[in-house]
């Protein structure tokens, strides 16, 4: 398994908030607190676009290959043309905008903010369709088909995009602490959440006829003075091509891959120079991008300059993951 750091002519000058691979290519979308949205061609090892904005960008997503959206600290939701580099404000939250996702199945844009609102937008008409007031702030959202998952406090909720007037369905998260991230499984039915105290809760069904597998584990069980050292799980991403395989990244810079069916670790990467702020698989699941960046969660965070790494998940990894490592020890990349 080989990894390489992406090179930028002008380094990213503030925290990376989100990275996303494009739906069909190996172009990587990067939002950051330095107010820039970047598009990096991983195959060509070149920065294709750097689009400055007027506010810190706290999240981003693609709509196809040529359009992207960002959520800003100025409450604005921006639409970016990735060919021309132009941008326009589509609308606003009443407080800082924090999350943004686009549903290809329903052609709806979903955003949340510190105003405790979730807004469903029509990107073509550039207007809000439905706004819903929530009791608490949304920490994280994730999409799989028509199913939108939301993390609020220590609870997870499911929302069906085919019925915008419907109610949120509560899902048991099996964690007591605040949820930091939520991720929908794209290759099967289910989701995983990561909490600020280092726990991961998984609920996945391998097929439509099988029962859900649900359990909780401590993701990176490191101890100090005999006590658990609580480290936030900042991101979880499922591999789109390997059933039930997912990776976790924590605030101390550790990334590990897991096999949910056999409940074991597949491998752990060497520690990164910063906490893991965001991760993304490409469409084939053979490239894993990792943003190592401080995230303003703690006063004593590592503050090395933000860096982005891309790992090639080779055939040995795919073979090990698909067979569940029944005859192999967990693989540690060195």
TrEMBL record:
<keyword id="KW-0677">Repeat</keyword>
<dbReference type="InterPro" id="IPR001680">
    <property type="entry name" value="WD40_rpt"/>
</dbReference>
<dbReference type="Pfam" id="PF00400">
    <property type="entry name" value="WD40"/>
</dbReference>
<keyword id="KW-0853">WD repeat</keyword>
<protein>
    <submittedName>
        <fullName>Uncharacterized protein</fullName>
    </submittedName>
</protein>
<dbReference type="InterPro" id="IPR015943">
    <property type="entry name" value="WD40/YVTN_repeat-like_dom_sf"/>
</dbReference>
<dbReference type="InterPro" id="IPR036322">
    <property type="entry name" value="WD40_repeat_dom_sf"/>
</dbReference>
<feature type="repeat" description="WD">
    <location>
        <begin position="90"/>
        <end position="131"/>
    </location>
</feature>
